[in-house]
Fold this sequence. Notes:
Elements: E1 2-3, E2 8-10, E3 31-35, E4 45-50, E5 61-64, E6 80-85, E7 88-95, E8 100-105, E9 110-116, E10 128-132, E11 136-141, E12 146-153, E13 157-165, E14 174-180, E15 183-188, E16 192-197, E17 204-205, E18 210-211, H1 213-217, E19 223-229, E20 235-241, E21 245-251, E22 261-265, E23 273-276, E24 282-287, E25 292-299, E26 304-310, E27 323-329, E28 338-344, E29 349-358, E30 361-366, E31 372-373, E32 381-385
Antiparallel strand pairs: 1-26, 2-22, 3-4, 3-32, 4-5, 6-7, 7-8, 8-9, 10-11, 11-12, 12-13, 14-15, 15-16, 16-17, 16-18, 19-20, 20-21, 21-22, 23-24, 24-25, 25-26, 27-28, 28-29, 29-30, 29-31
Amino acid sequence: MRRVSSFSLVRPILMAGLFLVSHFGVAATNYVISNDDAPFPFRTGVSFYAIGSNGLLAAPQQVFSGGNGISGGFFGANRLVALNGGGQQCVYASEAGSGNMVGIDVNTLALGGTAQGSPTDAGTSNGIGLAINTHYLYASFTDSGTIGTFQVQPGCGLTFVADIAVAGLGTGIINGMALHGNMLVATYTDGSIESFDTSHGTPVSHGDKQYSTATFSTMDATYPNSIDITKDGHYAIFGNTATSVVVEVSDISSGKLTKTTVYQSSASISSSNIRLSPDETLLYVVNSQGDSVSAIFFDKRTGTLSGGCTSNRLRGQSADWSYLGGLAFVSQTGNGAGVYVAEFGGSSGIALVNLTSSGHKCSLQEVPQSPFADPNAGLLSIGTFPPRSF
């Protein structure tokens, strides 16, 4: 096993050359879910994998959704979200090829509804990212540079409300999104970040758009991609695309983004997808171009990162898959017990990497049965039902 070298605080100096809710119900079955994102002329949908007691995945049951995906796009744009609140148990997925947002009832595995944004909303080049609460689903359309607001309806349906035009400081395209309470946080492909007020449904900018510290100090060699937010809404965490592992943290307790603090390690390549463990003691990092998974210890009181561990290379890279995508927890309690990881390529699959942890030490190990095939997918986004509680 490879250990992550201790993460160091990166001061805002030039680093030239670094390239970088509510009421919860109980579903009959726990699932790992995937947005299959199959392009035309193939049928696409969402695959549901029943989880065995040892975390191994059964053969998937696919719910066809009637649209088409694009089999690709931005790492940070999460194409799949789960709702387990407001009296509903739903999975929502975006279909960038046809521009659809689809809802699926988890208890019946039946299509609950389909909706589209305005006629100009599109994400056919790099996908449509999603974020959700019990009232609204937000969709980031990467071609049109818009955020669409959809109202959640009974039976896992959706109704389009409105969209707004957005762009980074350098006209970058919207990428990742994360939602906490009435704050929506977004990343752009030029390295800028921004937050919005969603208290009235449609997002309104807080006027805090800024370049991330790492983007500025590396002269655009690294940029924030995916986002997570702590349970109490104190910190926003950004996973960066870079040639090392780069994570940035912003204190958002004021209700706006503040200048990010940067942590980096040479343990692997890239940190394009991140996720806090259910107990917030670990930040899981998918090294999307380093072919591995890292776990970094997180202090939720101070928002600081330290130490951690990195897995060996996951099986099948290059031969079966090209990049690692999104992640989902083995357990929805404690430190998550490890992660499932999307494998994107000509032969997509889902890897299972277990975590062993004691004190301030940990290790990550892919199980012998991994990966589990997803024959239906160009796989970048996965999740679980039920989802993490925040």
